[in-house]
Amino acid sequence: MPPAPHNASYETLRALHHNNTLILPNAWDAASARIIQQAGFSAIATTSAGIAFSLGYPDGQRISRKEMLTVVRRISKAVTLPVTADAEAGYGPGPEDAARTAKDVLAAGAVGMNFEDATGDPQQPLFDLAAQVERIKAVRELPIVLNARTDVYLLAVGPPEKRYDETVRRLSAYRDGGADCVFVPGLRDTAIIGDLVKDLHCPVNILVGPGSPSIPELKKLGVARVSLGSAAMRATLGLLHRIAEELKTTGTYATLEGGVPFADVNRLME
């Protein structure tokens, strides 16, 4: 286990996984983080995809560790809440890469870290389980709240009838390796989510969006953490698309209504 940290934000973030349901509408820059803080949420999570898209990269560790964590640092400085950073798959295959990424996440001012097991290789889409556990243990040498993710469902790995057992096998190993919370994106079936919560005996994170169970439903199932990933960022791109279409077709401005006033944004950034 990691040494006892002196950072109150670390303790706060850990406790939030055991106190009701932690809801995280993920941020991709300082402005979105300030909006989320102003809305009264308890913590800030970053979205790796949202940050990558905003800087002109596709998702999937195509952005460098340095560029990703530069944005995490800006977000951390912009808010007073605990920040948990999406560090993708650790920006390298070995335990030493995962440990370096965790150190850099802490140096950027975050106290939590998402860590996934996707390799980016279609022939072997997930890291070998034993190797991934070693990477998790390397991260857990540091005082960081670790959210360990498997992409079994998201990437549709293996036959459908075997995905649940593989997910439980992996997430149980990640939990035993020291993860504070386990994350299974790509899952919307309430029965399966409920079974996972019961079978894993640790905080479970579910990724949500249109078509997902509601927050009240997820709370009833015992889900400890709910996050939006890049959905909010992509929704803003959808709004921008509608603004552009209106300007191009009718030359009017109705889709701009409801925006935060300039003066309010300016004050928010002070």
Helix/strand structural class: alpha/beta
SS strand fraction? 5-15%
The CATH topology is what? TIM Barrel
Largest sheet: 8 strands, parallel
Mean pLDDT metric: 96
Helix tally?
A: 11
Poorly predicted segments: 1-6
CATH class: Alpha Beta
- Domains counted in the coordinates: how many? 1
The radius of gyration computed from the alpha-carbon positions, rounded to a whole number of angstroms, is: 19 Å
Biggest sheet: strands side by side, in what order?
Answer: 1-8-7-6-5-4-3-2
Which architecture does the CATH hierarchy give at level 2?
A: Alpha-Beta Barrel
By DSSP, the count of extended strands is: 8
Helix content percent band: 40-55%
Q: Indicate the overall shape.
A: globular
Cα(first) to Cα(last) distance is 39 Å
- Can you say what the CATH homologous superfamily is? Phosphoenolpyruvate-binding domains
Order of helices and strands: HEHEHHEHEHEHEHEHEHH
